[in-house]
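Researcher: I'm preparing a figure for a lab meeting and need a structural model of a single chain. I don't have an experimental structure, so a prediction will have to do for now. The sequence is pasted below. Please return the structure as tokens so I can convert it later.
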Amino acid sequence: MGQVSWIFAAGAFTLASCGAEQAPSGSAAGSVPQGAKGTEASTGDLFTDAPQISVVNGEQAATIDISLPANIADLPAPLAEEIRERANRGTEDFVSAAEADKAEAAREGFEFRPHSLDVNWVEVGPETGRLAGYLGTYSTYTGGAHPNVGFDMLNWDREAETALVFEDFFKDVDAARNLMTDALKVELLKVKRERLESTGLSDDELMKSWVNPAFEGNDAVFEGFTIARSSEEGKAGGFVYHFAPYEVGAYAEGVYEVAVSHEAFASALKPAYKEAFAGAPFKP
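Model: Understood. Here is the structure written out token by token.
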């Protein structure tokens, strides 16, 4: 996938181009997309690579690495531009914050730890058909005890050439939110039982500490999905929800990814999108 790497020093920066990697060959329906860093269950797996930081006499404030989908050059212009814009969003603020922290460290006489931002966008949705899905993973380190990770999701209507949000799919958004809440809680509880089995916590205890509060008065939680690949080629199998650490569990629990079959919300879909869904969903 194409990758560029910025190394920032206080007050100036240099841009180094890291040669584009070979694009992966086409994959069958339901196959796992390669390079989807940040989508594994364990938080530790997100940061297995050494930090991409270059320190020369302590001058560097931050590095930013941005990876885009391997086929970015072949995508429709509006979609490619949307991905590029999202990938670069916030980079200036990130560098400004790093430079401010570096200056403060110099004033106060304590060690400065260079900051890093690793942005990785990959296609995770159906490779053909009406609906497409892209996931951006943002791994950051700002000098604290551990790195952090966050997600950005882009869902795309290939026919209309436009980005889609949750409400675009449904004729009754409130009903759809209720259906999705029920389905997500069932799937999240399954994963929590596996990860936290040794704690001896009851189902009620597993849910009330993190999961239930995440859905209380928080409509934004429903936007955290990508279109799921399907066992049926050219169709979407449902939605895959991506929860970063602290969203529905403690940092040590890592990332939560749960797939919701289209069957769980089919009754609330707009007629225009009913034919776009079929088969069983696959997580990235």
